[in-house]
């Protein structure tokens, strides 16, 4: 059974930082591309960042230079370091996984709320 469990969300002031973690089980983590998505109220879910099994990364334009995705294959965990947070980053953040040869994400976590507000 595949499980992706996110943690690290919360309330932070504008300009602050948070680090999200996603612990994976039930998959061969090292051959999966891992992604972070987010969904704000009334908005579509959007890809924030992803990292391949080889360590290549890409980011949404809105978070480039502020967010960093990384992975620790020994711990089956992917991280999202979020700096210089803005109110528009407020959303539920989801971890996702797909096999490196798959065209779409097929495993999802339950989500963690990130709220940026003063």
Percent of residues in beta strands:
over 45%
- Low-confidence runs: none
Globular, elongated, flat, extended or rod-shaped: what is the shape?
A: globular
> H/E order of the elements?
EEEEEEEEEEE
> Based on helices, strands and strand pairing, what is the structural class?
mainly beta
Distance between the ends: 40 Å
User: Rg to the nearest angstrom?
Assistant: 13 Å
Question: Percentage of helical residues?
Answer: under 10%
Q: pLDDT average, as an integer?
A: 95
Largest sheet descriptor? 7 strands, mixed
Number of H/I helices: 0
Number of strands: 11
Summarize the structure in words.
By secondary structure, the protein is mainly beta. The protein contains no helices and eleven strands. Strands 2, 4, 5, 6, 9, 10 and 11 form a seven-stranded mixed β-sheet that branches. Strands 1-3-8-7 form a four-stranded antiparallel β-sheet, with no helix packed on it. Strand 4 (32-39) and strand 5 form a beta hairpin.
